[in-house]
Write a structure and sequence with these properties.
The chain is α/β, with parallel strands linked by helices. The chain has a single domain (about 5-255), classed as 3-Layer(aba) Sandwich (Rossmann fold), CATH 3.40.50.10320. The protein has nine helices and nine strands. The strands form two sheets. A seven-stranded mixed beta sheet has the order 3-2-1-4-5-9-8, with helices on both faces. A two-stranded antiparallel sheet has the order 6-7.
């Protein structure tokens, strides 16, 4: 981990404001809350980027939440995000949405990386917080890849830090824990911070069942390792391959190969 990443994590541990320009780049509205909701208020120069609008185009999630269109569902999720940020005392300098449909980021990685590169350059991001490559959701893995591609296009590459989300394990879903044995900084949250995070999570009414799977008593971070995106993140069936989320691992890796070849 570089000096900037180390300084950021030390400040989070000590609850000292982070003055460096930082981008949090995540796949869906609510992922920022899962990963770092209790501590996001410490970032004084925050660019918050969502790769997708949070609304799958097959409408299954939209209808389950009581909406008849993806547009209405996406608008509701934006409203939930705004409420969550207010609950957490989080005031980003900028919030940007790259515009991919939920479950569709994998099919647009080159273009998304280009748009993100422009945003990072405009923000002069010293560091990016994002997803690990873990096979939990195809949009998460796509976000990881485009962050790495966008970072490579910067005059001064930002350090990439990761937050854990979920992946397949021997006993089923593993959430709020990194895949593998890489060193991580685990920050135990105070009772007040736990309440802040719960309040943020509660703002995402349409995601209540999903968010119940995640811990609210700690937040963890690590420096991004070097990935081979042409190999699966772990042996066996990936978590998203148990679901009809629009893509399987081999197709995802072929799309990653094409995105990397065009970088």
């Amino acid at each position: 981990m570089g000096a900037i990443g180390s300084d950021i994590l030390e400040r989070l541990v000590r609850r000292v404001p982070v003055e460096a320009p930082v981008a949090v780049v995540v796949a869906h509205p609510d992922d920022e809350t899962i990963g770092a909701g209790a501590l996001l208020y410490l970032f004084q120069k925050l660019l918050l980027v969502h790769v997708t609008d949070g609304a799958p185009r097959n409408l299954s999630d939209a209808r389950a939440a009581g909406f008849s269109s993806a547009a209405d569902y996406a608008a509701a999720r934006r409203g939930e995000l705004a409420a969550a940020l207010r609950a957490g005392g989080v005031v980003p300098e900028e919030i940007a949405e790259l515009g991919a449909p939920d479950q569709g980021a994998s099919f647009a990685m080159p273009g998304l990386a280009g748009t993100l590169a422009e945003l990072l350059a405009g923000h002069q991001a010293a560091a990016v917080l994002t997803h690990p490559y873990e096979g939990g959701h195809p949009d998460h893995d796509a976000t990881t890849l485009i962050v790495h591609l966008a970072g490579q296009r910067q005059k001064r590459r930002p350090e990439i830090l990761e937050m854990p989300f979920y992946h397949a394990g021997e006993g089923g879903l593993v959430s709020s824990r990194f895949l593998g044995d890489g060193a991580a900084v685990e920050i135990v949250l105070s009772p007040e911070e736990c309440e802040r995070k719960r309040a943020m999570i509660a703002a995402f009414a349409t995601q209540r069942a999903t968010l119940a799977q995640f811990r609210v008593d700690k937040e963890s971070f690590r420096a991004a390792p070097t990935y081979d995106f042409l190999q699966p993140p772990h042996a066996g069936r990936l978590h998203y391959e148990w679901y009809d989320w629009g893509i399987a691992g081999p197709e995802w890796r072929e799309l990653a190969r094409k995105a990397l070849a065009g970088a």
